[in-house]
Specification:
3% strand; two-stranded antiparallel ribbon; 156 residues; mainly alpha
Length: 156
């Protein structure tokens, strides 16, 4: 179990569940995240990592770079741990021709970009799950990382 950190914004002891990817400051909530984001001054090395220059090839098994003090474990809570997808399965997404075909659609790419940049990703995801194209994308991803079990199939 990870040590609980005090929130760098409001000071709540042991409440911080999240870390800033730019400077590794710990915070406890969306309001604290927003407040921190307004005054965040990242270290130059961390800024490069946050921009993605080192991430694709430079992370270790914990999702941490050799020159970075934060890891995937820093931003996931214990409740989120059960939803983590192993790296091997994530790589299967990049190999899927069906998924590549879906990502050629400019409307889907715009939806994904909007979700990525949104402050309230959760409510936007709920809204987009009403879009057939987005549902098709989500279903395709799930079929790849969690193939359906063959429990109710009768042999012919």
């Amino acid at each position: 179990m990870r040590a609980a950190w005090p929130c760098a914004v409001c000071g709540a002891a042991g409440a911080a569940k999240y870390r800033c990817p730019r400077c590794a400051a710990a915070y406890c909530s969306v309001p604290c995240c927003r407040a921190h984001k307004e005054r965040c001054t990242p270290e130059p090395e961390r800024e490069r990592s946050a921009a993605g220059e080192a991430f694709p090839g430079g992370a270790n098994r914990a999702g941490q770079h050799a020159d970075s003090p934060w890891s995937v474990e820093d931003i996931l809570t214990e409740d989120d741990e059960q939803d983590r997808v192993p790296l091997q399965k994530l790589k299967l997404l990049g190999e899927s021709e069906e998924l590549r075909g879906l990502l050629l659609n400019p409307h889907l790419r715009q939806l994904l970009l909007t979700v990525d940049q949104a402050e309230d990703k959760s409510s936007l995801m709920k809204k987009y799950m009403q879009e057939p194209l987005f549902v098709e994308f989500a279903d395709c991803c799930l079929r790849i990382v969690e193939p359906p079990e063959k429990e109710n199939i009768l042999p012919e």
